[in-house]
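Schema walkthrough. Field components (list of strings):
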Amino acid sequence: MVKVIEGSPAKMGFRMPAEWEPHEQCWMGWPARPDNWREHAGPAQEIFARAAIAISKFEPVTLCASAEQYPNVYKLMQHQRNIRVVEMSMNDSWFRDMGPTFITRKGGPDSEQTIAGIDWQFNAWGGIYDDWSLDSDVAKKIVEIERIPRFPHKMILEGGSIHVDGEGTCITTEECLLNPNRNPNMTKLEIENELKEFLGVTKVIWIPRGLHGDEDTNGHVDNLCCFIKPGVVLLSWTDDEKDPQYERSVEALSTLSQSVDARGRKIEVVKIHVPRPLYMTEEEAGGVVSTEHAVPREPGTRLAASYVNFYIANGGIIAPAFGDKWDKEAREVLRKAFPDHEVVMVEGAREIVLGGGNIHCITQQQPVRPS
Amino acid sequence: MVKVIEGSPAKMGFRMPAEWEPHEQCWMGWPARPDNWREHAGPAQEIFARAAIAISKFEPVTLCASAEQYPNVYKLMQHQRNIRVVEMSMNDSWFRDMGPTFITRKGGPDSEQTIAGIDWQFNAWGGIYDDWSLDSDVAKKIVEIERIPRFPHKMILEGGSIHVDGEGTCITTEECLLNPNRNPNMTKLEIENELKEFLGVTKVIWIPRGLHGDEDTNGHVDNLCCFIKPGVVLLSWTDDEKDPQYERSVEALSTLSQSVDARGRKIEVVKIHVPRPLYMTEEEAGGVVSTEHAVPREPGTRLAASYVNFYIANGGIIAPAFGDKWDKEAREVLRKAFPDHEVVMVEGAREIVLGGGNIHCITQQQPVRPS
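Field assembly_structure (string):
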């Protein structure tokens, strides 16, 4: 096997499968840094573990932990039959963004390799902490463990900033991809072309802005909306016109409704209400160790909480619950959106939001290798 | 999959396959500690790399390296198609001794799991360095990566202290297994019973002593002799009656010649001459950083060098060469012993001996999982 492949994956027949296509496994990291996760990450670890165990009921999980954390995590997971714990260094634990973007192609005489991983550049979302050297190796280490070849890329991109329908369409946000802290020397057209060449898509739909309050990621699309099937997008919504989220949701609705996908379908939008505005408490902010190495966490900050930041496992939807009055409706919307999946709501997901993301952000699916 | 299995592997139908049975891959570590490997392990790393590359021509290799070493090792191996580099912490790099002992059984209605790993206790050969906490987790981490269940064991044992013929016979040395720095509270009979229950053997042949000068391991059998096929043992030999090795080789010859194996075969012995006496030079010893954490390396120490410390890969024999006049004969003996294997001699293996072992000591075969 060649370990590193140069060139255009699309031209070699690769494409990024939709998240609902069959997975071989799910990759996750393990949170630990005390300057991002309160109380030395204890509460976050509990929720990460809960998410991993929930996913493992549907597909194998690989949970990566630093050398220091390994013994704890192994012990915690030693009776979890479908979770393996693998040692891996990291600066933080957002495998959606640091992990490889897996792409696949059908096997054939000219395509011995049917799966590969795109290894984008990573700069900690424009640098919300000052050292991401270990995070930068995560994608490489993952594909190496799987003996899967790697397409290195020069562009900075996080997995959470893109969604695909598996049929040629990508959705993303201008707020993130065109942010000067990512690829200031690339034009929108150049970025779009790279997405097409690497994800195997022919159409990119640009939504102006992401979720209100999602400043850590500069508006990742995966916190605002996602495909539930080709042609249909689930969009975070609020009916509260006074909520700054309202304007953003209306804007996205407008963009999506006026778009057609790669196959010429008009995009249909399904709304899912965001939880009521949530804010970081004094106690929560106070539990984060303040250092010069990471952006501070301030009490009163609006939390970027939404229900679309879920993970689609093989036959399961692993979605965040916030103990909010909208939780119940969210579950119903997800049930209708995914009638063939079992919806599992993970209580306590607020803990992940405090660190800057949610269940989709901490997971990375590895699709089944086509034969 | 159950991760941890209690009970007797032999009673569950498991046995340790002979090293010449088909492998799925070979596991190796990466040397780094400057208080054991001279010149901050640079020369040793070169030879480990050479051995890994040689093995990878015959079977996949997994090369494990600490977080600190990972970037170097990845770069070094990035064009080696059959070598994957995996992050793993370790105190030193002797995967024969720290790794799991893989055992297999035929698949059947009551045996979903056809492979498992024995996770012996490890105490750095009675404590030649003072902290082996990371080494102790290596076996666990390896089986976890492979999603293979683990039989934890309470007895201290290193993989290099046993050899099996795959047909019910184990050879070992009293010098090592009965050394009070290993399992002082166990009798010889108790140790033998554990070998039988865990390796699936019915006969243990006890050779009194290992190779002269092999004080680090207290006379591991894998530096003195090995099976080349059932019923036939290859024994390190010298014709020089003044060499202290002579007495040990004669002693082993006597023991082996008077033994019958598990199938009732009289053991046949094939001799392979050791290299001429080799001693650690002033320069070599001087290159090792002296610390309070590891036994010192003294100039003038007799090196425990022998040709039987080789690795049997799928169709290949990866054996040490010392630049000695006996190298050529060793190659011929190995060719005759393994007519269906290609013999590859690794030049510069003296470097591994300086650290306390050789090619067999730094490798661990993972057998193919029976279907």
